[in-house]
């Protein structure tokens, strides 16, 4: 009975990430089989700083925060189907792979989409918590150092951490 | 439809020389479903922020306000869009200043119909999504349309010279559903109309291109087996309907595709071919890039290349090495007129990426590029130091660009005065 319940819950969690987003905005949080994280993918930045170069972190979930909502944009990079995750309300900035390091990979930052498409292009998302946010042009995926507020978010070699995207109803 | 299109391309390859050198060939309009009316005026094209005299942009030096900037091609200088010599460009009294609320909703800028347009794409804490208009010198900036607070607008804006077109998503947060709409904006009447509404929760479409009076709308669809396909649908903005006969369905795992202006490009990875169709002139071309693999076979390049149209006659091809020890991108410039390939290695030091071509409607001999980014440190409003990135703009002769000769003509900047230091 316990195993059946777990598999049902697992299916429900996977169903939440299945198929293509029918919804414009994602909130991303570390994925768990049971329970939910209290932290969201977040754009970090001090007052007075411009958007370009702002690092990504995990941060305590805050309802309605535009620093924690990302618009899903489907398009192509050089003809290859891809996804860009832009900052909601400032669609000209997107999640981007920096050339400098952070944690055990490359830093994840916000950057002007018009000038950083190669490093901002994600593969088309797949119905799998490990296949939501992997880069198109590198064998790297969006990862976090741990599930706590302030955790560094970076691009890890080999693939992403497990994520749950909210705002994606099943088809 | 895809099989039919493939047959058409095969037919074309028999009548068009491989690596054709002799210019355009006419299409059989029956096979390609291309209307002869496409050459009529008011064809749809993507909006840009460029005019013949220069290039507009929104620059963000902090999170309190943005500045409207203009690269003047004749002066080779980027300036604040403000004519007052004593102005510091940091208060709302300056024409170039766009104040931002704490949600930092930076608008997208376009220069069309002899005006500037500023599009805020979503609701922020102080404003609904809206469209502003201004004169080309920045004067008389005002809001002409406000959208409902549950709208999220795309920045893929198209125009026919009289109206603007985009896709807007209506979100119902209570039920976590959404509905996508194709909007037509009339800037003179200061109103918008919904031309078409997709079924609720349809997978998000985007406008990929324009073909005459039709928007080419792309979307991803999944068949019952779970396989994903890329679809292009043609939406006529006059009849507000899709022409199902023109639908293109593509297996994007075996082929790439994109639209550039009126042209549709397919990249067939197995055949090492780029197939281009101009929906306005009815010309079709097939370009082979197999020579890259013949000449540079020792680089072990992946045949699934990325292709970019950098200029009218210049295609950049980006390939990655399949050698696990070599994590490098290799760039090539293909001149469609001379049929020549050149290795391209004009790169930025920052981010190790190729220089970015900014201009599309430019001098025939020169390209405007973002050559690099310069880092510097400054102190924020809370006393904490942070890094600022300054773009380095430049002109480069097309002939130098093709041969990767880094003979740049600097564009100095009032906004980033140290960018060329």
How many DSSP E strands of chain B? Answer: 32
What separation lies between the terminal Cα atoms of chain A?
A: 28 Å
What best-fitting shape of chain B do the alpha-carbon axes yield? globular
Q: Helix fraction of chain B?
A: under 10%
Overall structural class of chain B, as computed from helix and strand content, comes to: mainly beta
Euclidean distance between termini CA atoms of chain B: 56 Å
Characterise the protein shown here:
The complex is a heterodimer of chains A (171) and B (421). By secondary structure, chain A is mainly β. Chain A has helices at 2-17, 117-120, and strands at residues 25-30, 39-43, 56-60, 70-77, 80-87, 90-102, 105-112, 140-144, 153-157, 163-166. In chain A, 12% of the residues lie in helices and 39% in strands. With 421 residues, chain B is mainly β. Chain B is built from 4 helices and 32 strands. In chain B, strands 2, 3, 4, 5, 6, 29, 30, 31 and 32 form a 9-stranded mixed beta sheet that branches. In chain B, strands 1, 11, 12, 13, 14 and 15 form a 6-stranded antiparallel beta sheet that branches. In chain B, strands 16, 17, 18, 19 and 20 form a 5-stranded antiparallel beta sheet that branches. In chain B, a hairpin with a 5-residue loop joins strand 30 (366-379) and strand 31. The longest helix of chain B is centred in the N-terminal third of the chain and has 14 residues, at 2-15. Chain B is globular. Mean pLDDT of chain B is 85; it is low at 1-39.
């Amino acid at each position: 009975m316990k195993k059946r319940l777990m598999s049902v819950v697992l299916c429900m969690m996977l169903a939440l990430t299945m198929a293509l987003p029918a919804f414009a905005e994602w909130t991303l949080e570390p994925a768990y089989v049971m329970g939910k994280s209290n932290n969201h993918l977040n754009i970090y930045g001090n007052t007075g700083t411009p958007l370009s170069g702002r690092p990504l972190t995990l941060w305590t979930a805050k309802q309605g925060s535009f620093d924690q909502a990302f618009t899903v944009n489907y398009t192509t990079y050089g003809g290859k189907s891809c996804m860009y995750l832009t900052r909601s309300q400032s669609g000209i900035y997107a999640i981007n792979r920096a050339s400098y390091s952070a944690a055990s990979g490359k830093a994840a930052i916000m950057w002007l989409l018009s000038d950083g498409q190669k490093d901002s292009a994600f593969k088309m998302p797949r119905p799998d918590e490990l296949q939501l946010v992997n880069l198109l042009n590198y064998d790297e995926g969006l990862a976090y150092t741990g599930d706590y507020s302030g955790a560094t978010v970076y691009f890890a070699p080999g693939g992403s951490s497990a994520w749950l995207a909210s705002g994606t109803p099943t088809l | 439809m895809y099989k039919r299109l493939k047959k058409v391309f095969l037919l074309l390859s028999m009548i068009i020389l491989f690596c054709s050198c002799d210019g355009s060939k006419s299409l059989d309009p029956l096979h390609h479903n291309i209307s002869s009316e496409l050459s009529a005026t008011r064809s749809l094209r993507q909006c840009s922020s460029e005019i013949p005299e220069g290039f507009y942009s929104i620059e963000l030096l902090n999170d309190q306000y943005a500045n409207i900037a203009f690269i003047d091609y004749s002066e080779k200088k980027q300036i604040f869009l403000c004519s007052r010599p004593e102005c510091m460009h940091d208060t709302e009294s300056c024409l170039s200043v766009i104040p931002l609320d704490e949600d930092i909703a930076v608008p997208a800028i376009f220069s069309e119909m002899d005006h500037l347009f500023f599009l805020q794409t979503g609701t922020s804490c102080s404003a609904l999504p809206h469209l502003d208009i201004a004169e080309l010198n920045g004067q008389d900036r005002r809001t002409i349309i406000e959208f409902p607070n549950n709208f999220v607008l795309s920045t893929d804006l198209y125009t026919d010279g009289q109206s603007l077109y985009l896709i807007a998503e209506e979100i119902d947060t209570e039920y976590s559903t959404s509905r996508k709409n194709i909007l037509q904006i009339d800037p003179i009447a200061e109103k918008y109309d919904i031309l078409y509404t997709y079924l609720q929760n349809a997978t998000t479409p985007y406008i990929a291109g324009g073909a005459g009076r039709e928007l080419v709308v792309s979307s991803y669809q999944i068949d019952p087996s779970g396989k994903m396909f890329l679809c292009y649908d043609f939406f006529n903005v006059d009849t507000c309907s899709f022409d199902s006969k023109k639908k293109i369905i593509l297996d994007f795992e075996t082929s790439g595709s994109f639209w550039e202006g009126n042209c549709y490009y397919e990249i067939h990875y197995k055949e090492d071919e780029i197939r281009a169709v101009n929906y306005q002139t009815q010309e079709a071309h097939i370009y082979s890039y197999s020579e890259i693999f013949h000449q540079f076979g020792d680089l072990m390049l992946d045949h699934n290349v990325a292709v970019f149209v950098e200029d009218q006659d210049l295609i950049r091809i980006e390939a990655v090495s399949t050698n696990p020890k070599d994590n490098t991108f290799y760039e090539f410039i293909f001149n469609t007129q001379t049929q020549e390939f050149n290795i391209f290695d004009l790169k930025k030091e920052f981010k190790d990426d190729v220089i970015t071509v900014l201009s599309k409607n430019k001098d025939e001999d020169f390209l405007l590029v973002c050559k690099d980014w310069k880092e510097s440190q400054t102190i924020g409003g809370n006393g904490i130091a942070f890094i600022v990135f300054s773009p380095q703009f430049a002109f480069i002769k097309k002939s130098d660009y093709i041969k990767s000769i880094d003979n740049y003509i600097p564009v100095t900047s009032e906004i980033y005065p140290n960018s060329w230091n």
